[in-house]
Specification:
single chain; mainly alpha; about 70% helix; membrane
C-alpha cells in the first residue's frame, strides 16, 4: 500500500491565510452589489424603495459584505448571507429557467456556498475575529 502523501509545509502555512484572502475578495465583490443598490455606485438604474425586499437585500449585501471584509462576526454573518443568496436564487433566478448559466443565478449559487464554507471554516487569521480571539 502506497503511503498517503502529506501536504508541503508551505501549504500548511498559507492555507489559513488564503482562507482570509478568499473571504476578503469575495466579500468586496459581494459588497459592490449592495453599494450599487443602496448607494448608486457603480451607477445603475436600481433605486429600490426603502424597506422593499431588494432594498433589504442591498443593505444585507452592503453591511454584511463590510463585516465579512473585516472578518467581524464572520460565522453568523456568513450564515445570514448564505441564506440570502439561496433565497435570491430561488426567488429571482430559478423561475427564469433550470440552468444557472442561463438564468443568471450562477453567482448567487457560488456566493451561497462560499459563505456557507465560511460558517464552518471561520474567517482565517487575517480578521478582527481572530485578533479578538473569537472562534
Amino acid at each position: 500500500m502506497a503511503p498517503i502523501p502529506t501536504a508541503p509545509a508551505w501549504s500548511l502555512t498559507w492555507a489559513p491565510r488564503m482562507l482570509s484572502v478568499l473571504r476578503i475578495v469575495s466579500a468586496l465583490i459581494f459588497m459592490a452589489h449592495g453599494t450599487q443598490k443602496i448607494l448608486g455606485f457603480p451607477a445603475s438604474d436600481m433605486a429600490p424603495p426603502v424597506g422593499s425586499l431588494i432594498w433589504v437585500a442591498g443593505m444585507l449585501e452592503l453591511v454584511g459584505g463590510a463585516l465579512l471584509v473585516l472578518g467581524l462576526f464572520t460565522r453568523p454573518v456568513a450564515f445570514v448571507l448564505s441564506g440570502l443568496m439561496a433565497a435570491a436564487y430561488w426567488m429571482a433566478h430559478a423561475p427564469q429557467g433550470p440552468f444557472p448559466a442561463l438564468n443568471g443565478g450562477d453567482a448567487a449559487i457560488l456566493y451561497c456556498f462560499v459563505f456557507l464554507y465560511f460558517v464552518f471554516a471561520g474567517p482565517g487569521p487575517w480578521s478582527l475575529d481572530a485578533a479578538m480571539g473569537r472562534r
